[in-house]
Amino acid sequence: MATEKVSDDNFEAEVLKSSTPVVVDFWAEWCGPCRQIAPALEEIAKEMGGKVRITKLNIDENPRTPSFYNVRAIPTLILFKDGEVAGTLKGAYPKSQLTAWINGTVGA
Question: pTM for the whole thing?
Answer without folding.
Answer: 0.95
